[in-house]
């Protein structure tokens, strides 16, 4: 739903509103998109590291090893220079929240997206032989049955 550059802007804009931990930022993005998109920690934390490396955000260590991210003056200048892109992202997030693909809870949407990604990645690896096709079909059928029973 977002490319890497857009996620950087979105996270930095969130930090500008309120210094936050990574998990809080994940939840803030998820909320902004009405549950239709939730960035994974594997995408968010490297992005936060990039913001820190570039001098756009500062990491404040807290007790327990948690890190709170705070915007820097350089980060504020970066946001100002990219205001149009941030406004467009905000509009897109608002549309996603109001027109979300389903009224499913965010964890369900996240799991569906994970499944789609896993399938795409497996298909890119090459041909699927009959044994692998049977195993994939069985896993998908089992998941479908579990969902139907829930």
Describe the structure in your own words.
With 150 residues, the protein is mainly α. The longest helix is centred in the C-terminal third of the chain and has 20 residues, at 130-149. It has two domains: 4-99, Winged helix-like DNA-binding domain superfamily/Winged helix DNA-binding domain (Arc Repressor Mutant, subunit A, Orthogonal Bundle), CATH 1.10.10; 106-149. It has seven helices and three strands, in the order H-E-H-H-E-E-H-H-H-H. The protein has a three-stranded antiparallel β-sheet. Helix 1 (4-17) crosses helix 3 (41-53), helix 1 packs across helix 5 (83-99) and helix 2 packs across helix 3.
Question: How many helical elements?
Answer: 7
- How large, in whole angstroms, is the Cα Rg? 19 Å
In the CATH hierarchy, what is the architecture of the largest domain at level 2? Orthogonal Bundle
Number of strands: 3
Low-confidence stretches: 97-102
Spatial arrangement of strands, main beta sheet: 1-3-2
Task: Tag the structure with descriptive keywords.
2 domains, mainly alpha, 7 helices, three-stranded antiparallel beta sheet, single chain, 3 strands, 150 residues, 69% helix, elongated, Arc Repressor Mutant, subunit A
